[in-house]
């Protein structure tokens, strides 16, 4: 009985005593030394001495990835290759963040917020900086291997939470990739229709999508073709895909700069008055919408295993790409609201229409090219990130081992890359996944919130957590409870703001979050980050603010997005219970030892 209770404790609180080798025990609960003897952890249901299923599930779910096993490296000829420099990493972040939305969302939000949309983007950018600081610290702390938010959660919390984060992120990535592919196909056709001979002669089922069977099926031929082309590029190697991303992202940035400079000479400052015609609340509401325009900087963290100097370059790539995006978005906002009164901005293509109204039709052509380039890089980086996440779970045994294989000569996760490309191609070619856009962003906010919490928990001192306690719970559990309290307060404040409840609800939620933050500040002992690793400033305040605001945004999502979060979480638990808990190997040396070339001396 004592042994079962011990197995349910967090890793740091478990006893170091080992069971005698002669004692029969459930194969699920093998020690780290036992795990090295084999990879097949599937238990025998006929074992008379095996633990009950629920007890075994709980013990497996609470396993954490030892930090040492995640930073181990082994020289091999079939690993990923470190070829990405700091410039490539910055461009990956920009490529993932800035799509066609910079030419659209800036104007559509301005219709409600007025010229104050500039403040909306500034507020959203500041909120993203909080998340980026957290990502930068963890990327510097885990510079050796891929995994991103999944890896950080596995090391900071437990196996089941990490798997839940992965499933929420992956649904966002799969649906998002298919949706972007359809948008790219549509923009590509629109670009071709600038040629008079082509205009009006392209069937809708080729690029725009044509519905069949009452809308159940929506055929789009071009979207899967584009996905196949990008998948082939990604399979060829990280250098080839990085070259494509660098070219397309540079083209996109140049076009945005040209558009801004062309618009500066058409700005009428009187259009900026009144600056916030619908009040500050409209500006805040706009910030909750444009927040997702910055999403993408986290893709840099998944390049950890292919960065030349990951400990230095990953934080620069994350923060640098976000800073560039903030500057570009704010510049476009100032130009578009200065060129045309915000009340006259269109809904579908506000920036293009604004230039057309000024007689600058050549700029609209540049905008079309920029939109195609932006969607291409967003899709390319999205597919790249997905394959690296699958690679990480395959290595840990939470997914079939085929996802863990790296091609010996191409040095890419070929099977994972082909899988994510096929999933996106089927969804994009047969279904109008753009209708599901309202249930997206759940995974992004979930990942951002958990990563921010990981920064706090990984800074806690093990000695303090073992020696201090409050009543019947440990100080570690008390800290986790405080983090959950902050998250719930952010959600309650968001609900109250969304449905215009009494201001008292927001104030109470905010005060409770402050109390929980004080407990995190003064009840926990934090270990400073050693140089040369990047250190997030203001821990735990910065991560706490990040968690609070992320959950505030979570409350602004469509109700169906909440349903999706709950239903997908239940499905993920079922998959983990039926497969993951038996095959995962968090401490197995041959799974955690990651092969890569050209490892810099700074990488562990």
From TrEMBL:
<dbReference type="InterPro" id="IPR029485">
    <property type="entry name" value="CAT_C"/>
</dbReference>
<dbReference type="Pfam" id="PF13520">
    <property type="entry name" value="AA_permease_2"/>
</dbReference>
<feature type="transmembrane region" description="Helical">
    <location>
        <begin position="144"/>
        <end position="166"/>
    </location>
</feature>
<comment type="similarity">
    <text>Belongs to the amino acid-polyamine-organocation (APC) superfamily. Cationic amino acid transporter (CAT) (TC 2.A.3.3) family.</text>
</comment>
<dbReference type="GO" id="GO:0015171">
    <property type="term" value="F:amino acid transmembrane transporter activity"/>
</dbReference>
<feature type="transmembrane region" description="Helical">
    <location>
        <begin position="212"/>
        <end position="235"/>
    </location>
</feature>
<feature type="transmembrane region" description="Helical">
    <location>
        <begin position="534"/>
        <end position="555"/>
    </location>
</feature>
<feature type="transmembrane region" description="Helical">
    <location>
        <begin position="439"/>
        <end position="458"/>
    </location>
</feature>
<feature type="region of interest" description="Disordered">
    <location>
        <begin position="16"/>
        <end position="51"/>
    </location>
</feature>
<feature type="transmembrane region" description="Helical">
    <location>
        <begin position="89"/>
        <end position="110"/>
    </location>
</feature>
<feature type="transmembrane region" description="Helical">
    <location>
        <begin position="318"/>
        <end position="342"/>
    </location>
</feature>
<dbReference type="GO" id="GO:0016020">
    <property type="term" value="C:membrane"/>
</dbReference>
<protein>
    <recommendedName>
        <fullName>Cationic amino acid transporter C-terminal domain-containing protein</fullName>
    </recommendedName>
</protein>
<feature type="transmembrane region" description="Helical">
    <location>
        <begin position="117"/>
        <end position="138"/>
    </location>
</feature>
<feature type="domain" description="Cationic amino acid transporter C-terminal">
    <location>
        <begin position="534"/>
        <end position="583"/>
    </location>
</feature>
<keyword id="KW-0812">Transmembrane</keyword>
<dbReference type="Pfam" id="PF13906">
    <property type="entry name" value="AA_permease_C"/>
</dbReference>
<feature type="compositionally biased region" description="Basic residues">
    <location>
        <begin position="16"/>
        <end position="28"/>
    </location>
</feature>
<feature type="transmembrane region" description="Helical">
    <location>
        <begin position="479"/>
        <end position="497"/>
    </location>
</feature>
<feature type="transmembrane region" description="Helical">
    <location>
        <begin position="561"/>
        <end position="579"/>
    </location>
</feature>
<keyword id="KW-1133">Transmembrane helix</keyword>
<feature type="transmembrane region" description="Helical">
    <location>
        <begin position="279"/>
        <end position="297"/>
    </location>
</feature>
<feature type="transmembrane region" description="Helical">
    <location>
        <begin position="362"/>
        <end position="385"/>
    </location>
</feature>
<dbReference type="InterPro" id="IPR002293">
    <property type="entry name" value="AA/rel_permease1"/>
</dbReference>
<keyword id="KW-0472">Membrane</keyword>
<feature type="transmembrane region" description="Helical">
    <location>
        <begin position="247"/>
        <end position="267"/>
    </location>
</feature>
<feature type="transmembrane region" description="Helical">
    <location>
        <begin position="503"/>
        <end position="522"/>
    </location>
</feature>
């Amino acid at each position: 009985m004592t042994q079962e209770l011990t197995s349910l404790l967090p890793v740091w609180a478990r006893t170091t005593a080992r069971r005698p080798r002669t004692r029969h025990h459930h194969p699920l609960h093998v020690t780290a030394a036992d795990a090295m003897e084999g990879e097949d952890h599937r238990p025998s249901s006929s074992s008379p001495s095996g633990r009950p299923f629920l007890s075994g599930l709980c013990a497996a779910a609470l396993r954490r990835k030892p930090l040492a096993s995640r930073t181990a490296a082994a020289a091999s000829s079939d690993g990923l290759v470190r070829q990405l420099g700091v410039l490539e990493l910055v461009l990956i972040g920009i490529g993932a963040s800035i799509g066609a939305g910079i030419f659209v969302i800036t104007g559509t939000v301005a219709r409600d917020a007025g010229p104050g949309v500039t403040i909306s983007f500034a507020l959203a950018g500041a909120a993203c900086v909080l998340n980026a600081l957290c990502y930068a610290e963890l990327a510097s702390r885990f510079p050796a291997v891929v995994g991103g938010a999944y890896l950080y959660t596995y090391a900071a919390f437990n196996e089941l939470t990490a798997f839940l984060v992965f499933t929420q992120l992956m649904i966002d990535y799969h649906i998002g990739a298919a949706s972007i592919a359809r948008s790219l196909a549509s923009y590509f056709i629109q670009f071709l229709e600038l040629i008079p001979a082509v205009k009006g002669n392209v069937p809708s089922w080729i690029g725009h999508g044509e519905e069949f069977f009452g809308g159940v099926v929506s055929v789009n031929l071009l979207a899967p073709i584009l996905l196949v082309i990008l998948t082939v590029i990604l399979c060829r190697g990280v250098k080839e895909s990085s070259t494509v991303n660098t070219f397309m992202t540079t083209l996109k940035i140049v076009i945005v700069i040209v558009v801004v400079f062309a618009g500066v000479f058409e700005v009428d400052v009187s259009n900026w008055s009144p600056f916030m015609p619908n009040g500050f609340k409209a500006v805040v509401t706009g910030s909750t919408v444009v927040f997702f325009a910055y999403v993408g900087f986290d893709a840099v963290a998944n390049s950890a295993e292919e960065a030349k100097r990951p400990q230095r370059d990953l934080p620069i790539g994350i923060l640098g790409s976000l800073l560039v995006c903030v500057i570009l978005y704010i510049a476009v906002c100032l130009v578009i609201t200065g060129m045309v009164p915000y009340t006259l901005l269109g809904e579908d293509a506000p920036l293009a229409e604004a230039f057309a109204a000024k007689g600058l039709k050549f700029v609209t052509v540049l905008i079309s090219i920029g939109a195609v380039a932006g969607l291409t890089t967003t899709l390319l980086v999205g597919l790249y990130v997905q394959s690296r996440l699958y690679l990480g779970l395959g290595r840990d045994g939470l997914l079939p081992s085929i996802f863990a294989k790296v091609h010996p000569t191409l040095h890419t996760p070929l099977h994972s890359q082909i899988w994510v490309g096929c999933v996106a191609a089927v969804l994009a070619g047969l279904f109008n996944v753009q209708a599901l856009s309202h249930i997206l962003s759940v995974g992004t906010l979930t990942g951002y919130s958990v990563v921010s919490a990981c920064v706090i928990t990984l800074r806690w001192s093990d000695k303090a957590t073992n020696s201090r306690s409050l009543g019947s719970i440990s100080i570690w559990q008390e800290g986790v409870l405080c983090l959950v309290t902050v998250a719930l307060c952010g959600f309650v404040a968001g609900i109250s703001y969304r449905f215009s409840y009494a201001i008292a609800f927001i104030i109470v939620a905010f005060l409770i979050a402050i109390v929980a933050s004080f407990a995190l500040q003064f009840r926990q002992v934090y270990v400073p980050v050693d140089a040369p690793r990047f250190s997030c400033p203001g821990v735990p305040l910065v991560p706490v603010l990040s968690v609070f605001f992320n959950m505030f945004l979570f409350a602004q999502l469509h109700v169906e997005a909440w349903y999706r979060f709950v239903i997908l979480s239940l499905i993920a638990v079922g998959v983990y219970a039926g497969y993951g808990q038996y095959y995962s190997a968090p401490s197995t040396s041959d799974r955690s030892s990651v092969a890569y070339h050209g490892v810099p001396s700074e990488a562990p």
